[in-house]
Amino acid sequence: MTKRPPGNQRPVSQDVLSGGLLRSTLPRKTQFGFVAATLAVFVIAFLSYRSLQWRAEGAALMQRTLEIIQSLDDLLSEYKDAETGQRGYLLTQSESYLEPYDRATAAIDSKLVELRAEVANDPKQAQTLEVLRHVGQQKLNELKLTIDLARSGHRDEALEAVKTGRGKRYMDDIRAGITDLKDAEKTRLAIRTSEWERASTISLGVVWGGAALLLFLVVGAALMSSHDFHAQEVERWLRTGQAELAASMQGVETVEGVGERIAAFLGSYVSARIGAVYFAEKAGSLRRVGSFALPSSASSAVRVAGLTAQAYTDNAFIETDDVPADFFPITSGLGQSRARRLLAAPTTADGAPNGALELGFFHRERPAEIELVRRVTETIGLALRSARDRRVLQETLEETQRQAEELQTQQEELSVQNEELEQQSRALQESQARLENQQAELEQINSNLEEQTQALEQQRNDLLRAQAELNRASAYKSEFLANMSHELRTPLNSTLILAKLLADNRSNNLTPEQIKFAETIYSAGNDLLTLINDILDLSKIEAGKLDVRPEEIAVARLCDELVDVFRPVARDKGIDLTTTVDADVPTAIVTDEVRAQQVLRNLLSNALKFTERGGVSLHVRREGARVAFSVKDTGIGVAPEQHEVIFEAFRQADGTTNRKYGGTGLGLSISRDLARLLGGEIQLASAPGSGSVFTLIVPRVAPATAPPRRAPEPPRAAASGGAPSNGGNGGGGNNGSSGTHGKHGRTLLVIEDDSDFAQIVAGVGREHDYQLIVTSSADEGVQLAGKHLPAAIVLDLGLRDRSGLSVLDRLKRNPATRHIPVHVVSSRDEAQAALELGAVSYLRKPVERGQLEATLARVEQRTAQAVKRVLVVEDDA
Questions:
Q1: Are 679 and 666 in contact (CB under 8 A)?
Q2: For all residues of the chain together, what is the average pLDDT?
Q3: Are strands 330-331 and 771-775 parallel, antiparallel or unpaired?
Q4: How many CB atoms lie within 10 A of CB 874?
Q5: Which residue, among 6, 463, 592, 538, has the nearest Cα to 264 in the 3D structure?
Q6: C-alpha 639: how far from its chain's center?
Q7: Are 258 and 63 in contact, with CB atoms under 8 Å apart?
Q8: Cβ contacts of 167-170, under 8 Å, gap ≥ 24
Q9: pLDDT tens digits for 33-69?
C-alpha cells in the first residue's frame, strides 16, 4: 500500500519505507564486450559520481534548511516561555514561575549564535536575523524591567508597564521576523528539493542509459545506488513529515487542539489505523487530548495505565504484538477489526517525559515510521507544554482582569471613604482645640502627681528599710529560737530522766500520789520537749537550714513501722487502725525517711487524737510519677473555710479544740513545710461531722537539698572564760583522777559539763559495775583518756572550754585511745559529723534512762568478746 505525504511531495513506495533493496544477478560477457564495457564504466562512473555529488549536496542543503526552521521554532518557543514565566511571576509573586524565564533567557543567546552561523552565507537572512535579535533584546529588557519592579515591591508599576502593550508589540515583531525567516527557508527548501529531484533524474538517466550496456558488470553499483536512493528518499520523507507536523501545530492555542492536530497528522502520514495522544497535566496522570479513528464511545477523560503509562514512566518506546483485548477496534463503513500491532512512545520536553503517543497497526510498523515518531516526540512535547502554558497564562490574565475590576470598585469605595475622612478630619480639628485646653489642665494635674510620686518614693524607701530591719529581726529570732531550744534541752534532759526514775519507784518508797506527781512531771516534760522540737524545726525551716537527705526506703516497711507505733494508742481508744498499699505502688521510693516519717506520724497522731469512734486508715496509692499517702479518719472534721487556717503556725480550726485535745498548733504547719522540702504537698478533704482525709503526695525520687557529705574540719576551741573543770563523781570529786571502782575494774569516762546529767550517767554506770571518772573539761578529758584508757567514753559536744568534736578528733588521732568506743550524748544535731569522726553511737538530749542502759550494755558485750590480734605488714608507717 502506498502512503502519499501531504503537499506536493512525491509518494514513497513501500519498498522505500520498509528498507527493501533491488537485487539482480550478473551474467557473463565476452572478453571484447567486457573491455568495451570497462571503458564505458569509467565514463558512466564519472558521470554517476558527479550526479551523486549533486544529490548529496542537495540533500545536505535540505537538511540544513530543515534544521534552521526547527531552530526558529525553538527560538520562538523560548521567547514564549520567557514571557509566560514573567506573567506568571507578576500574577503570583512566586519565584517558581520564573523557572521558564530563567531557562529561556539562558538559551536564547546560544540559539541566536547557532542561527547566525547557519545563515552567514545569506546576507538578507543575516540582516533579518539581526533585526530579530535587536527586537528580541528589547523584549527581554522589557521582561526584566517588569520583573525587577515586581521584586522591589512595585508590582502595580510592573502591571502598568505590561498594560502599555509594548511587550505585545515586541512579541508580534518577533513572530513576524521568525515567520519571514521561515518563509525564506521554506522557499529555499522548495528550490533545493526541485534541484535535488532534477539531479536525481539526471543520475537515473545516466545509470539506466549505461545499464543496457553494462548490466552484467554494474549490478553492485546499481545496488549501491538503489540503497543510497532509498536512504535519501526516507530522509526526505522524514524531514518533510517533521516540517509539516510543525506547520500543522502552528496557530493552535489549546492543548486539545494541538493534540487533535498531532493525531490527525500521524493518522494520515504513517500507516497507523488508530491512534491517540496523551498529556500529563500533573506528574503520574495521563489524559487523552487527541485521537485518530477512535469510536465515539471513547471518553476524552480516560486515565490510562498499562503499556502507554509504562512507556511514559520509563521514557522508552514499547512495541508489541500482544494487543490488549479491550483495545478499541478499527472501524470503517464496511466493518471493524482489532489492531495487530501496538506502538507506545513517550513525548518529551527538555528530555523529560510529559505525555505519550499510542498507535495501532494492521501490520508490523516500518523502521521509517518508528524513526519519524522518534524524531517528533520532542517537538510534540514542547508544543503540548507551550499550549498548556498559554492556557495557564490566559486563565491568569482573566483572573488579573477580574482583580483589576475589583480594584476599580475598591478605588471608588475608597474615594467615598476619603470624603468621609475629610469630614472626620474637620471634626478632629475641633476636638484638638478642646484637647489642648484639657492638656493644660492635665499638665497641672501631672505636676501634682509628680509631687505625690516623690512622696510615694520616699515611703517606698522607708518600707524597704523597714523590710530589711524585719528580715534581720527574723534572722535574729530564728537564731535565738535555735539557741534557746538547745539551752532548754540540757535541764530538760535531767528533768525527764529523774522524773522517770521517780515514776518507776524502784525503791518502793513513794506514795501513789508522789508517783502520780512524777508521772505528771514526766508527761509535761515530754510535751515541752515536743514543743521545743517543733519550734526548732520551724526555725530551721524559716532559716532555710533544714536539709533533705534522700535514701531508698521500702514503702511496706515504712507503713508497718508507722502502724506499729500507733497501734497501742488505737487499741486504748477502741478504734480500728488499718493500712492498705495498692498493687501498682513502687516497692521503694527515694526520699528523706526521717522527714517523711515525721509528717506521717503527725497526720496519724492528729487522726487518732480527733477520732472518738470508727477508725483510722493509711492508704498508699500511685498518682502518675508520684506516691500518695492518705490518712483517713472518722473524727470531728474541719469546715471548708478553716482548711487553710489549720496549716498556719499556732493555729487550729477552732480554739476550743486546743483546750479539749491539746497541742501547739505547729504540727500541720511544719508538716506542710516538710512536704514541700520533699518535693511534694499535703492535700485536705474534710467537712464537719464526716471525718478528714489528709494526703501526703511525694515524688518517687525526692530532690536533694543537703550539701555533699564530707568530713568536718577539726573544731576550734571555745572562747576563753569557761568555767574550770570539775573532776570526780558528779563534778565534786578529786579532779577526775579517781572515782567509784567497779567489781571488774572497768572504767567509764564521762566528759559532761552538765553536773546533773553527769550524775545520772554515773548512777547508771555504777549499776553496771563501772569505775567512774567524770570531768567537765575537754582538755582534761583527753588527758584522762590517755592516762586511764577507759573501757568507754560518754562525751557531750557542748563543752565550755572546747567543742566536743575536737575532743573526739583528738581521741581518734591518738593511736593509744583511738580504739576506745566513744558514745556522744548532746542536745546539738551534729550526728553525721560525730559519726564520721569515729563515734560509735549518737544520742540526742533529752535521753531516756533506758537508752543509756542499752548503750552501756553494748559496751559490756563488746568488752566481753575475746581480743583478736591482726598482723599488719606495711613499710609505710
A1: no
A2: 79
A3: unpaired
A4: 5
A5: 6
A6: 49
A7: no
A8: 167/83, 167/139, 167/142, 167/143, 170/135, 170/136, 170/138, 170/139, 170/142
A9: 556 666 766 776 776 666 666 667 766 777 778 888 8
